[in-house]
Amino acid sequence: MTRRAATVAAALAVALLGLAGLAWATLGPMPERGAALTFVIPPGTAARLEAGEPLSVLPSPVHLTVGVRDVLVLTNDDEVPHQVGPIILGSRQTYRIPFRRPGTFKYNCSLHATGTLTLVIDPPPAPGLERLRWRLGSLVTS
Amino acid sequence: MSGVRRGAALAVLLLAGSASVGPARAASAPAFRSGAFDPPRAAPAFTLPAAGGGAFELRRQGGKVVVLTFGYSSCPDVCPTVLAELAQVRARLGAAAKRVQVVYVSVDPERDTPARLRAFTEQFDKTFVGITGPSAELAPVWKAYGISVVRKDLPGSTPATYLVHHTASVFLIDAAGRLRVMAPFGTPSEDVLHDVRLLLADAAEAAPEAPVLVEKAWVRRAAVMPDSKPDVPNTAAGYALLRNRGKTADALIGASSDAAERVEVHETRNMAGMMMMEKVDTVALPAAGRVELKPGAYHLMLIGLKRTLTPGQSVDLTLEFERAGRIRTRAEVR
Question: What sign does the dihedral A58-A62-A65-A71 (CA atoms) show?
Answer without folding.
Answer: positive
